[in-house]
Amino acid sequence: MGETDSDSPLAGEASETFLEVSGVPVHVGVVWPDADSARRSPRGDVRLELGRHSGFIANTAFDEGLVDYTLRYDNALHFSPTFRAYEEQLARRLCDRYGLRGKDLVEIGAGGGHFLGLLCEMGDNRGTGFDPSHHAESADARVGGRVSVVRDYYSERYADHPADFITCRHVLEHIPDPRGFLHGLRRTLERRPDAVVYFEVPNAYLILRQLSIWDVIYEHCGYFVPESLGAMFRACGFEILDLHSCYDDQFVGIEARPGPRAEGLGEPCDLSELGPAVGGFARRFDDVAAGWRERLATLTRAGRSAAVWGAGAKTVSFMNLLEIGDQIAAVVDINPGKQGSFLAGTGHEILAPEALREIRPDVVIVMNPIYRAEIERDLAQLSPRSEVASV
Is 23 among the domain residues? Predict the structure, then answer.
């Protein structure tokens, strides 16, 4: 344990390293046009450190220069009925709770504009998204009407842009200096004390408690639990209106508005749950990886085939951490934008689920158990004899 240097997001507080993983793919939201470029995709190292004051977990080996969000980035989840239902419920709740009717909305990291489009459609609002990786051909159908997307990072130079409500979902964990970003956001709201912000991030307890080790990815240079997310928002001058876990405890959501400014790092985070969860995590991480290597080896020895359903971040981590080659017969994904492309690191082609009619794997590995029921319904038509195994 020691104090990190001034360039670290944990600067000014004692920290401890609790996990190191080398050579992981840098981009998990980018698919590649051919197997060779996918195998040559850039790699980086992960060194997770826990800030003993803030509770913030940072990858202190993160190199921002390796990451390029202007590439064909695609982490859209709304092709899943389960995720669509979640987003629709969330949008409806936010519109109702904060009276979002005929208002000006901003989304930071809007992607194709799907969620912003939902908010605008439900409340007849006007929306502007900001995202440097936005591509018109992958935009939501509502973009161009009441929704527009700017291909740029949101910053203080947009402080005069109208915003009654700002949402930012699954972006903060990608920002090397989240505290600086939130301070900047707080300054843009100086003249809008009634504006509300909604942020959503992955819940690091999913990794630490449930051992979803495949959620340790390079693009996530920071990891939050509810306690640390709340502590950071308060330290950056926000009043918390609501703080909760959601999506089967996989995400953390926070609703806030401008509040009193704090000094320095603010009040310390409660580490009573986070501290023990970090202790001994590297050993548990290795045990889970070893267990899956043996499981796949057993399948191969028995002459049985396996496929992976989903070509997102978890799959990229799973395939590369385990150094999977021909142990997996196919990777499939329901997102048509990914089909025909290749998976970072291993170079597996991403197929449409319909390919399973011909492949007929003995086992289909589901990377996120929240989607298991919908995948089982599809498999009943595509490959009814396949067993389903959740990671």
Answer: no
* 24 assigned to some structural domain: no
End-to-end CA distance of the chain: 32
Confidence of residue 48 (pLDDT cuts 50, 70, 90): very high
Q: What is the pLDDT of residues 127-144, one digit of tens each?
A: 999 998 765 555 555 655
Query: In which element (H, E) is residue 232 found?
Result: helix 226-235
The answer to whether 24 and 45 have CB atoms below 8 angstroms apart is: yes
Domain annotation covers residue 340: yes
CB 53 within 8 A of CB 269: yes
242 and 287 share one domain: no
Range of 341's domain? 281-390
**Angstrom distance (rounded) from CA 340 to CA 325:** 18
| Average pLDDT of span 11-38 | 94
Cα distances (Å, whole numbers) of residue 35 to 38, 41, 344, 350 = 5, 10, 9, 10
Residue 147's nearest CA partner among 118, 117, 103 is: 117
Q: Is the pTM of this model over 0.90?
A: yes
Q: Of 245, 278, 311, which closes a domain?
A: 278
